[in-house]
Amino acid sequence: IKIFSNKRILIFLFSFLLVDMVIGQDAMINIQSRNAISLNGQWNVIIDPTGVGEWLQVWLEKRPQKKTDFFEYSFDGGPVLKVPGDFNSQKSELTFFEGTVWYRKKFNYTIQNEKRLFLHFGAVNYIADVYLNGEKLGIHEGGFTPFQFEITNKVKSGINSIVVKTNNVRQKNGLPGLGYDWFNYGGITRDVNIIETGKTYIQDYSIQLKKGSLNTVSGWIQLDGLQLEQKIEIKIPELNIQYKTKSDKKGLAPVDFSSGFELWSPENPKLYKVIIKSETDSVSENIGFRNIEVKEGKVLLNNHPIFLKAVNIHEENPYKGARAYSRDDANLLLKAAKELGCNLVRLAHYPHNENMIREAERMGLMIWSELPVYQHIDFADSTVPVKMDRMLGEMIRRDKNRCGVVVWSLSNETYPSTPNRDKALVELTKKCKALDSVRLITHVINSQKYLSNSFELWDTLYRHSDLVSINEYAGWYVPWQGKPSDVKWKVVCPEKPVFISEFGGEALFGSDYGPADEAAYWTEEYQEKIYIDQVKMFNTVPNLSGVCPWLLFDYRSLSRLHPVYQKGYNRKGLLSEKGDKKKAWYIMKVYYNKK
Ligand code: GCB
After folding, report:
1. Which structural domains are found in the chain, ordered by start?
2. pLDDT of residue 394
């Protein structure tokens, strides 16, 4: 009774109205090059299945002062979880948990007058409410993109305490929505850092080749702080570049210079050390230069046609059955993609962590980055387009200087096409173009008709894509309608390159399949046959610019219920979750070798 007293209800409602509207601020980029205090490591947690911690106001971390005081929560003496890392894979009682976990971390700080301080999160799935020393900083929605809060005037000298309420309950109007075919790993899944900057700092910049150019960089630098007008220099020592520019009253400096760059490509993933120096700040990072375009039905990289030899990857360490986040996790996944012969990874179906992006770029893998605008999105809900916009901004902001990223994929399988969907996704495409004019944009579609062995790609969303991306599961969800080598195609935008963004089927690695008649469907041989047929079919596709099997490793999914063959895994991997190569792997590898 005490817990739900009227006073508490009023305080709760009042605080909700006052502060819950503060959303995470746009995160600074290239945190790797900043003065950071890592808050990774063990955090104390309170597991809160019913959400009662909200009523108890656990962020206040109250402690009894006298014998008659009591509070029905405490971070001290309770469980701990590792950050970064999902909570599901760390404790067996949390395996299938979708709910609230409160995290608490203390840090020591000495205030320095000339500094600003930011609390930066790589990502929290799905909603994060963040508190510092009992005061709410704000909230962030979206499980795969970074956000920050400035805490310059809120931090104190000595011990400070951060509390984060994480909640991964599926939302009807969330991104993704209620249904999706991957594991809903919750918690603080990426790095947490406190970042120290000067009073005016280099917050953001865009340094990439201008569309269509192989030698001219066109971009901008954005300062944040009080001294916005500054002289700024970009140095690329290896090229003897010392480019000077100036920021205006709004802290924005134009960037425009030319040089003879050694261009980035999968064969030669050349990166240059680039230093950006203002009067009050300096950051550096490795940046590559390349040009990606579509022309006459082909994808061109640095003016040469390229066939996209891709593979789909989820952000999961298959060996651990956990959300991937580290460089080691990235290497495990990307090395397998390299071994298959890939030159592109489709990072499905949400923006992956920065280690994945940076490692892929370093290894010579082009990257396809995607928004979690997946099946079951509630386009009729007016908040959805707002969330899409915000997530788009956060995805592009973080990775726009990664030349390895060549495709922004804005949606996957949003069929049926309704006026709300079309409006929202066309608007989103326009916004994406305005934010980044140099990369390819696509929407992945599975609304095609496949009748009388003929595919008809009719979806009008293709008009807003640079690539005609199609997911088709002939041989698995849909039976072949004739010989794979005789398939006919009718494409709504025949002038555009076509990319088969998904195909495949499930197979359990190994040979003990139970009764032969039932088993056929889940065998490696059956999956292999699908791949053999698909490869035959690829020859029939007009303007085929690449293919992308679904997918590299078997991965955990709560929608996969078959007790013998699936056991909670989507088995469409070319590799099992233990890394065993299935027969289909070799079909794909041979195909990519020949291409
Ligand atoms: C699809 C989805 C992907 C699923 C896959 C499947 O079309 O894009 O997320 O996991 O099919 O296995 O059904």
Report:
1. 6-198 (2.60.120.260), 203-289 (2.60.40.10), 294-594 (3.20.20.80)
2. 98
Dmax (CA) for the chain in angstroms is 83
Tokens coding 238: 């290896």
The first and second tokens of residue 265, run together, are: 């490509």
Contact 566, 572 (CB under 8 A): no
550 Cβ inside 6 Å of ligand 1: yes
Q: Say if residues 145 and 123 touch (Cβ distance below 8 Å).
A: yes
509: three-class secondary structure by DSSP? coil
User: Of the candidates 431, 401, 390, 371, which has an alpha carbon nearest to the alpha carbon of residue 26?
Assistant: 390
3-class DSSP state for residue 142? coil
The owner of tokens 């980029």 is 29
C-alpha–C-alpha distance, residues 369 and 319, integer Å: 23
CA gap 372, 176 in Å, rounded = 5
d(CA 171, CA 383): 12
Please identify every stretch of the chain with a pLDDT value under 50, giving residue numbers as ranges: 1-4, 8, 10-20
In 3D, which of 450, 364, 455, 444 has the Cα closest to residue 407? 444
- For residue 586, give both structure tokens: 């070799």
CB atoms within 10 A of CB 24: 24
Residues 6+ apart with CB under 8 A from 180: 349, 372, 374, 375, 376
pLDDT at 512: 64
Q: Is 412 in the pocket of ligand 1 (CB under 6 A)?
A: yes
What the block records as the tokens of 375 is: 């099946």
- Residue 151 CA to ligand 1 center (angstroms) comes to 41
Ligand 1, atom 10, lies closest to the CA of 181
Q: How far apart are CA 135 and CA 151, in angstroms?
A: 11
